[in-house]
Amino acid sequence: xxxxxxxxxxxxxxxxxxxxxxxxxxxxxxxxxxxxxxxxxxxxxxxxxxxxxxxxxxxxxxxxxxxxxxxxxxxxxxxxxxx
Length: 83
Description:
By secondary structure, this protein is an all-alpha fold. The chain has helices at about 5-25, 25-45, 50-70. Helix 1 (about 5-25) packs antiparallel against helix 2, helix 1 (about 5-25) packs parallel to helix 3 and helix 2 crosses helix 3. The termini are far apart. About 20% of the residues are buried.
């Protein structure tokens, strides 16, 4: 594994997790999105990326937006009490 990727994992993972959690509202979904972001980084040519943290922020944010767009609409449920 590239030293830049290893450094990004240790230095930026919590920051990316915070961004994903704020966008999605679920720690489990945020973890999945951040993992996917790093998986995409592993497939990318890291030597061509000038700012790895910036690249990851963009990728994780876009994955979150895709996730939100594809999620089923959550409509509020009305509960009636009595008559």
